[in-house]
Amino acid sequence: MPESAVPLLRIERGEVEEGLQRGHFAAVDAGGALVTSKGDASRLTYFRSCAKPFQAIAALRTGIVDRFGLTAEHVAIICASHNGEPRHVATVRDLLAHAGIGESALQCGAHWPYDEAAASVVRREMIEPLAVFNNCSGKHSGMLAAGCVLQAPLEHYLEASHPVQQHIRQVVEEFTGCASTQILYGIDGCSAPNAAVPLSAMARSFATLVTSTDRAAKTAVEAMTTHPFLVGGTKRFDTALMEATNGRLLAKGGAAGAHCTADRRSGVGLAVKLEDVDGTWLSAAVMAALSELGWLSPAEQQALDRYAHPTLRNHKGLEVGRVTAV
After folding, report:
1. What whole-number distance in Å separates Cα of residue 49 and Cα of residue 258?
2. pLDDT by residue (tens digit) across 247-271?
3. Helix (H) or strand (E) holding 38
4. DSSP one-letter code for 33
5. By the number of CB atoms within 10 A of the CB, which of 61, 165, 209, 256 ranks highest?
């Protein structure tokens, strides 16, 4: 019988425990062996944006880099959940220009940049946000570029039967080690199909990702760890984690409290899932798991301390509480 979620985070306001966030995590090697876990390692979990490296690999395998002369920065933005800062938007636009695709082809939907400074600038310039501001616009640009190479209709690139999505399914099966019958699909926030697999399989996929000799996988890993700012941006946990470890750790989070990390030194992947789908304090749970695994040096832990021990502040900016690992 699967284990239930365990308490991972304690949220305190003043001297009172205001809540507990429960969840699960699993660390797995590339062979599928479970290294350690808490909660239910078999919990069926959507990848959400943790899937982006694998969606990128599917696009890379079509030959988009050579066909369109793409750079490592273009590859990093395909793997990103970016802030919509000027450099992010410029990189997405440059990728589309290299592939000869207009912004109107993006079907990810539009939202204002996550970065407050970037959002305040563009809100003064326009009434409605643009699709290139969407944190998933890089991924969608990669899918569109792959569709061009495959000579598949771009207007249908998000349909499950489209060749691009079929290529992605094959990559997910390959890296998770799951048969197609074991994987369920839903629709992500950006309207793309998204896979749900056991949490241990998510962890295994990241272990396989950083140990793979496959050219596309190595290209994605090097792009993300060499250009971590493009993967997230200012104040983003994934960016900070890869910067603090000089790319030794590969990190990619997703919505609904999902996060995956891989240690390139040991070849082990970690997947974390919070039951509270808000995910606000996800970084604290991930940092606790990384500490337990011994993946961070004291200097790296110190550099990332604000993500491990976030504080609660009210609208006046007063510190009113704290979040700690259980």
Report:
1. 8
2. 999 999 999 999 999 999 999 999 9
3. strand 34-38
4. -
5. 209
